[in-house]
Write a structure and sequence with these properties.
This protein is an alpha+beta fold. The protein folds into 2 domains: about 1-190, PmbA/TldD superfamily (PmbA/TldD fold); about 200-435, no CATH class. About 20% of the residues lie in helices and about 35% in strands. It has 9 helices and 24 strands. The strands form 5 sheets. Strands 7, 8, 15, 16, 17, 18, 19, 20, 21 and 24 form a 10-stranded mixed sheet that branches. A 6-stranded antiparallel sheet has the order 3-2-1-4-5-6. The protein has a 4-stranded antiparallel sheet with strand order 11-10-9-14, with no helix packed on it. A hairpin with a 2-residue loop joins strand 10 (about 285) and strand 11 (about 290). The chain is globular and about 70 Å long. It starts with a helix and ends with a strand. About 40% of the residues are buried.
């Protein structure tokens, strides 16, 4: 990487080299039986150069031909992509505890044993079809640039997911358990899955209309994507954000406070610096319903005459290979401040409504504007404070900037999401629900 930077210096004003590698051990179960065992290793390097205010970008899986990658980056400058920003020069970045070395020695047989154990528990207490998966990953990231930055980190990630599918439906109760090291699934989580599954095993056909809707953590990706789009500096610059110019104004119910906390290394994915080498800091986005900040990468910070908030990440809508992507503004450590209501308290407070366990079609609709229309898959129907079954083919629709102004209560527990962030249950009222009845 150092040689590549030195070579690039002679061809451009500024340069950055990004390195990313990971190794995965994976197992998957279908119908409570082992389906697959796999090990993956991948690495790569990408080069960003800036010369005469234009951006060049190229990537490779190895550094055998350094001159070739520089030539590719120089050729890409002909596209005329403007780059008025500088690469960062940061010092004193905090050291986070992001890696447990024991995960490197974790065998796939141990992963299989844990999945089998959890499958047996879930299968013995329900009639569900059980799908499970488990992954142990070691990641290494390094970023160097011509400003003298040299940032690196190593992280370990372990997660196991379980999906209890109602017979013949393809839908079910889904949960994730994650840690920096191997950590058996706690009994509390399996008990929760079993209880929700059994309570919702009966199919009911209630009438639609305006009612209370509890957005469960797995369905909060609906909110996450729309709010993240609205609060993004990219959306502000492109004039597609409905909350542009509303700093200091109330956009949600006062029970909603939203933070991005990349420095909390008790949780997976903690970061001391983003994918541009900018120092990460905690960011308050919404406090008691009031919009406080937008988030920025280097590019859009320069365009909007602001400073990067350390949110430049190499990602796209469905994730993607970071080596092949240029940074954009993104949130990976988002959470809503939990409230003081237990799950059972939230259920008891619902006279009639649906708990959206997960959403179908959350990626569709006018995401920047905050609009959504999702299938509740499943939707757990609540009547007189009790879960009485599940609803087939129910649709929940609205706009997050309207729906989340009518929050009844927020749950007291944060759950990890497959799509990033940590979310409580959020109970809203007056939400439009369409059913077959």
């Amino acid at each position: 990487m150092e040689k590549l930077i030195q070579l690039a210096k002679s061809s451009c004003d500024k340069a950055e080299v990004y390195s990313y590698e990971y190794q995965d051990n994976l197992v998957s179960f279908e119908n409570a039986r082992l389906k697959d065992i796999d090990t993956k290793f991948q690495s790569g390097f990408s080069l960003r150069i800036i010369g005469e205010g234009k951006l060049g970008f190229a990537y490779t899986r190895n550094l055998i031909n350094r001159k070739g990658i520089i030539k590719n980056a120089l050729d890409s400058q002909k596209g005329g992509v403007e780059a008025a920003y500088d690469f960062p020069q940061t010092k004193g970045i905090p050291q986070l505890d992001t890696c447990d070395s024991s995960l490197e020695d974790l065998s796939t047989s141990r992963l299989v044993e844990e999945c089998s154990r959890v499958c047996d528990i879930l299968k013995s207490k329900t009639d569900a079809e059980i799908k499970m998966g488990c992954l142990a990953r070691i990641e290494n990231i390094r970023i160097i640039n011509t400003q003298g930055n040299d940032n690196s980190m190593k992280s370990s990630k372990y997660f196991i997911y379980g999906n209890m599918i109602y017979p013949g439906s393809g839908l079910g109760i889904y949960r994730i358990h994650q840690s920096k090291s191997f950590d058996p699934v706690p009994d509390e989580l399996t008990d929760e899955m079993v209880e929700l599954y059994n309570l919702s095993s009966k199919v009911v056909e209630p009438k639609g209309g305006k009612m209370k809707v509890a957005f469960m953590p797995n369905s909060m990706v609906t909110f996450n994507w729309r709010f993240s789009s609205g609060a993004s500096s990219k959306s502000v610059y492109e004039k597609i954000s409905p909350i542009s110019g509303k700093i200091g104004e109330k956009i949600f119910d006062e029970k909603i406070s939203i933070y991005d906390d990349p420095l909390d290394d008790e949780f997976l994915g903690a970061r001391a610096f983003d994918d541009e080498g900018v120092e990460c800091k905690n960011l308050t986005l919404v406090e008691k319903g009031i919009l406080k900040n937008f988030f920025y990468d280097l590019d859009y910070a320069k365009k909007l005459k602001a400073k990067s908030t350390g949110h430049g990440y190499r990602t796209e809508l469905w994730g993607g290979d970071p080596v092949t992507l240029k940074p954009i503004p993104a949130l990976f450590h988002l959470y809503i401040k939990p409230g003081d209501k237990s799950f059972s308290d939230l259920v008891k407070s619902m006279d009639r409504g649906i708990m959206v366990e997960a959403g179908l079609g959350f990626h569709s609709g006018n995401i920047p504007n905050g609009d959504f229309s999702i299938g509740a898959c499943p939707g757990l129907y609540v009547e007189k404070g009790e879960i009485v079954g599940r609803v087939k083919d129910a649709m929940v629709a609205g706009n997050i900037y309207q729906v989340f102004k009518n929050v009844v209560d927020v749950g007291d527990t944060l759950y990890p999401s497959f799509w990033g962030g940590r979310w409580p249950v959020v109970l809203c009222e007056g939400v439009s629900v369409a059913t077959k009845a």
